[in-house]
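Example 9 (inverse folding). The structure is encoded as follows.
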């Protein structure tokens, strides 16, 4: 297959709509699959979740509910029982469905599933003589197995001949992605939804209402009050943080995600959109910059891992920095400089789960992205003598991946242990 056609398919594969935090949405999706085939009254519900799914889902708001947690997400997925909605399975919930979900949530027994899979979600429903089981594995919407009464209804391994074909990001380099974004027809890019409208809409909502920590709204207020400059830097921070404020508090608006993460989708697109607005960029230049931002983030996430102890907003903001450089008229070398500047600046930021406070990290990474891009466009780059940075960009990203996957291998376990103990202590005081 032609290289540009495959990269186009990679964008369609990894840049998709999602509602709410991705981990609770995936838990709801697995539960919807199990419920869609269950023939009787549900008496018992089991959830088996990987540590990474628990860490990233236990503290985030569920859309439409003002509730927090993976159990209510699973219960509502069972109530909806419509897996065709995929990661938007919790859209348009009625008060009756929410009440029913609250009752079902009391039946749920959640267990940790220890394996090498970062994404593992298993929902088992039992009642009468029936049992259904759905497993999502590897990716947030990949249905690995669906069973009813121990009979396999659907089973698909990644890479099987009968399974959907996935484009492997490791087949391409950063240079391939840059060339794609500069060479592909503008009209072809317009067939993709890269988040220009959807992600800006949730940002506008976050700016208009008190959502979560209201980080974005407060930055915009400080701009209005003259405490901060009305420039690319602060406007990008306000848009990105406001969208995250809204999403993490359970706003009922979808976002365009990247590599299974809505926050990453927001952190890629909104700094680029903000820059284009301030520069008055042509729409074609904006679309090409958005495509590049998404592909840079996909490239880094492919090496670092879908879920890790590293805050995913680093790879996303690196994508944003590359896209901003393109809007500024910078070439490939300056895009590389921007990514190195981001890695040299924020490589140590850890992920301690999805939560309302993520908007602070998004704002910080967005600030770093704008700084990295502006420095890169002036020809300034972190030296190859510094830390994990080398002359070669691919080697630099590999070093980041090694730092995360080897050097920080115990961080996820430690963070999750702290979070679980904190939750137990809080419950004990109630």
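The amino acid assigned to each position is listed next.
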């Amino acid at each position: 297959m032609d290289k540009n056609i495959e990269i186009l398919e990679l964008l369609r594969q990894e840049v998709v709509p999602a509602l709410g935090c991705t981990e609770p949405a995936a838990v709801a999706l697995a539960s919807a699959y199990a419920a869609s085939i269950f023939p009787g009254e549900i008496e018992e519900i089991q959830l088996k979740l990987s540590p990474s799914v628990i860490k990233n889902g236990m503290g985030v708001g569920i859309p439409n509910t003002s509730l927090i947690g993976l159990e209510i997400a699973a219960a509502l997925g069972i109530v909806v029982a419509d897996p065709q909605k995929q990661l938007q399975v919790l859209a348009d919930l009625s008060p009756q469905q929410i009440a029913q979900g609250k009752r079902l949530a009391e039946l749920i027994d959640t267990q940790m599933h220890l394996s090498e899979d970062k994404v593992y979600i298993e929902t088992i429903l039992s009642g009468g003589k029936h049992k259904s089981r759905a497993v999502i594995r590897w990716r947030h919407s990949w249905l690995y197995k669906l069973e009813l009464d121990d009979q396999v209804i659907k089973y698909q391994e990644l890479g099987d001949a009968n399974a959907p074909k996935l484009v492997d990001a490791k087949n391409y380099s950063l240079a391939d992605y840059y060339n794609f974004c500069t060479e592909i027809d503008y009209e072809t890019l317009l067939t993709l939804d890269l988040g220009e409208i959807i992600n800006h809409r949730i940002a506008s909502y976050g700016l208009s209402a008190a959502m979560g920590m209201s980080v974005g709204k407060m930055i915009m207020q400080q701009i209005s009050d003259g405490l901060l400059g009305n420039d690319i830097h602060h406007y990008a921070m306000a848009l990105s943080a406001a969208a995250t404020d809204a999403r993490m508090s359970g706003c009922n608006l979808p976002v365009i995600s990247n590599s299974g993460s809505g926050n990453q989708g927001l952190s890629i697109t909104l700094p680029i959109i903000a820059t284009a607005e301030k520069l008055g960029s042509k729409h074609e230049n904006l679309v090409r910059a958005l495509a590049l931002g998404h592909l840079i983030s996909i490239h880094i996430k492919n090496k670092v891992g879908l879920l890790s102890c590293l805050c995913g907003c680093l790879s996303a903001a690196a994508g944003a920095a590359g896209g901003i450089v393109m809007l500024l008229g910078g070439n490939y070398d300056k895009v590389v400089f921007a990514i190195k500047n981001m890695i040299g600046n924020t490589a140590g930021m850890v992920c301690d789960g999805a939560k309302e406070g993520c908007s602070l990290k998004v704002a910080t990474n967005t600030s770093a992205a704008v700084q990295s891009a502006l420095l890169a466009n002036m020809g300034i780059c972190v030296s190859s003598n510094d830390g994990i940075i080398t002359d070669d960009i691919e080697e630099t990203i590999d070093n980041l991946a090694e730092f995360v996957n080897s050097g920080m291998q115990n961080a996820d376990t430690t963070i999750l242990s702290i979070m679980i103990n904190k939750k137990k202590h809080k419950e004990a005081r109630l």
